[in-house]
Amino acid sequence: MRIYFLLLLFSLQFVAQQTNPGVDEIINREMKERKIPGLQLAIVQKGKIILSKSYGIANLQYNIPVSNTTIFPINSNTKVFTGVAVMQLVEQDRIRLNDPISKYLDDIPNEWQKITIDQLLTHISGLPEILKLLDPMTGNIGPLKTEAAIWEKLKTMPLEFKTGEQFSYNQTNYYLLGKIIEKITEKPFTTGFESNQFKIAHLKNTVFGDSRAIIPNYAPSYRYNSFFDGKKGEAKLTNTYTEFPDFTRTGAGLNSTAEDIGNWLIALQSGKLFQKSSTLVMMWSPSAFNNGSPTSWARGWGITKFRKNHKAIGMSGGNRSVIMFYPDDDLAIIVLTNLAGSSPEDFIEEIAGCYNQDIVKADPLTYLRKNLREKGFDKAVEFVKKEQKTNPEFKPTEDELNNWAYRMMSNNQQKEALEIFKLNVYLFPKSWNAYDSYGEIFLKMGDKNKAIEMYKKSIDLNPNNENGKKILTEITAQ
């Protein structure tokens, strides 16, 4: 009887660990506010998936609910798999991060010759953007018709900036990494991903494909569109259609489930994908610009928060899915949705806070967002002033605030976005880009005089702000 009681107690504790009311509260709130049709969540803690849960509708046309085997496009989250593929080759000494791409790719322009593998991984190459040569409506090959034609045209386009001097998120980087992987392994990159990652991590529902493919249990993608039937009006939910040409799928070609990604993260952390722990550390570390300062990206991973405590590293894809790993806390969160523009990266750290409440305060943006929801976004500057007096570690970055405000703009939260752009100008008064963004929101809200004032300030700070000059000329001419 005592044994039965202990087993029952253990069972109840286990169930309690699985179900977290705080997580449900956050997910239900965010799905309602962001109008997300369907969502899938997995929580990994101490090498195990402790929660796998599905919410809402996967297919609105047929009213099919999300299940744990519903497959979602993960878009640019594919890049973390590509990062692992490259680092596996580094570990095998078949490639070096500082190798020039000319070592592996023939017939490339002179100005590309010294670009390194590392600079591709961290988006500081300056290469021209391959998306400019693809169909802007579907993402497919477009008028050039073949990969060979696109490749030849791409090589005629100038660098966007001097290699190693700036960051620019660019699909060309991962297209070239795919070509290099195939050159070294002498087989399609898809084959290598399947044998060296999917099979090892026992991924049952992870496949390459796009809107053209027939994928069982696939969740169609949706977005809110203010233009419907050619008329502008209230945003309506519409289907989205995306094609990823085969040769670009190292950048955004995978579809998966939250459970599969959770199992992949477990395999990654437990040493099944790498032979040495130092390889994982290297992958999750930034590279460096020419001046020695660290890159914002790690190698394949675009969300890097190297905080004093509760470090976080992850990636987002299609503005609709996000992976976040907390190495200090032995915790990972995966959120997949079927709504482009849902931006789950906004609330993923709040979910992590349900498992360690200190994570929320460790992330200035999440802490700020959580408090402004209660106090009002118009109190943003006041709240930050007060917080910084007592907490010197509270330092939201300019880029984080700017990107967050733009995400709110895209979700028609203009008043909230305005207050965050205002906060950014307060915190970074010498940033021409902060004033440029502030001017943009004023213009969007119809306050032409304030928009002119902000664009003038931006141009004073950066006389080379050509886009700002163009917009200012257009405004003043009206």
Summarize the entry for a quick read.
The chain has helices spanning 2-18, 21-34, 78-91, 117-121, 147-154, 171-185, 189-198, 249-252, 258-269, 277-283, 348-352, 358-362, 364-375, 380-390, 398-410, 414-427, 432-444, 448-461, 466-476, and strands at 38-45, 48-59, 64-65, 72-73, 207-208, 222-228, 231-239, 254-256, 286-288, 294-298, 303-305, 312-317, 321-326, 331-337. It has 478 residues and is an alpha+beta fold. Strands 3-2-1-14-13-12-11 form a seven-stranded antiparallel beta sheet. A three-stranded antiparallel beta sheet has the order 4-8-5.
3D structure, described in words:
- With 478 residues, this protein is α+β, with helices and mostly antiparallel strands.
- It has 19 helices and 14 strands.
- It has helices spanning 2-18, 21-34, 78-91, 117-121, 147-154, 171-185, 189-198, 249-252, 258-269, 277-283, 348-352, 358-362, 364-375, 380-390, 398-410, 414-427, 432-444, 448-461, 466-476; strands spanning 38-45, 48-59, 64-65, 72-73, 207-208, 222-228, 231-239, 254-256, 286-288, 294-298, 303-305, 312-317, 321-326, 331-337.
- Strands 3-2-1-14-13-12-11 form a seven-stranded antiparallel β-sheet.
- A hairpin with a 2-residue loop joins β1 (38-45) and β2 (48-59).
- The chain is globular and about 60 Å long.
- The relative contact order is 0.11.
- Mean pLDDT is 93; it is low at 1-17.
